Amino acid sequence: MNSLKLKLFIVAAAVLGGSQAFAQNVQLGPEWGEDATQEQRFENAKTFNYYRDAYNVQNYDKALSYLPELLENSPRGAQNIYVYAINIYKNKIQRSMDVKQRQVYVDSLLTLYDMRIQYFGDNAKYGRPYILVQKAKDYLSFMPMDRDGVREVFVEAIEANADDPDVDFINIYFNELTTDYKNDLVETDYYLEQYEWLASLLDKVTAPEADSAKETFDTLFVSSDAAGCDNIEQIFKARVEANPTDVTTLGKAFTLLMRSECHTAFLTEVGEMYYNADPTAATAKLVASAFVKVGDNAKAVSFLKAAFDKETDPLNKATLAVEIAATELVLKNASVAANYASQARQLDPSNGYAAIMLAQAYAEGATACEGFDRQTVYWLAYDILASARSLFENGSPEQQQIDQTMSMFRRSFPSNDELFFRGLTTAGAAYDVKCGWITGRTTVKMVE
Q1: Quick one: signal sequence residues (predicted)?
Q2: Alpha-carbon distance values, 402 to 63, 372, 388, 443 (Å)
Q3: Domain count within the chain
Q4: Could you tell me if residue 275 is inside a domain?
Q5: Among the four 24, 287, 388, 428, which has the fewest Cβ within 10 Å?
């Protein structure tokens, strides 16, 4: 017999035939029996071993036959006393077809959770906060119709984990709470209080990977009727006024107001505070969109220009320039619109919208002069649109719009008689347009 087999034989002999000697040599702590003798504690530990072995081979009824004795004699013996029993009862609940018997199993499951908290609630890793989360999830699974009970166990678990919030667990609860609110099972005030409390917990979580879960949380709130403009203002007004530099709170308030289509004075107030606290290109663009929503294009374009000045990426900068040009056209500032549209073309020659804005700005600015000079502006605008046409897919809405606009421009070209009178008889000949602030080289175009 080799040495390894010999060692295994000695261990087996000690376990099977030398239990009394083992009990005398190994001292078990009070967790295996508070006032028990060493021999009794050893018997309790041995009962746990039988319990564990039955559990491991999925002989659950046999395992449960040991449970009352363990709970009576050594409830602090091992946390697995409760882990195994909880798993066994979850299995029985899932398999049971008898409603009354199933409820007995559920009651037993909840009692086991409470006992686990009582005896192992102070465990550093798997103590009360952890156990309450597992209890809440099982309560929702097995007692979904007890809406008051579901809310109660989730609130208790979230409170226990307030120092280290679990964003996904919070979303499970908030989803249930939102459903209850929509079904008129909770009052608006309570729902709003819970939202504020949960939102304050989520603010503690700064990990980037939690951003998606936070967005889900806000989406749930917006989906509820409680996310009305008055309620959002009620929640955030005092908070943003008390701390006007808190980027997180301002960003959340701004986002919720925009998503709930609260195009109010409070939206723009928060927007300006948000930009002051976070003066970046991205924030400036968001705030500009808020002013567009409330119909204040002058303010909108000022924030777009701030975003343009701060932006460093050429493509993004070109897109912003196009937006500025479009807004300036609405404000009847054609020359400013043309300036930004020209910058957009320089920054990104492939941006077809920049060419469209420039052509429209020239057409709008043609009123700066009269007669023939005004008509030649449409030659220039026509050329710009023609150059932009290939930047869009064939048959796209943009291409169709360009074709329609080019056709309209052609109707504004100088007549052939006017061209003959001015000695411009060669189609395609170079021509320099000079009309107020509009200048540029184009070609003579005969009317067909």
Answers
A1: 1-23
A2: 79, 24, 8, 19
A3: 1
A4: no
A5: 428
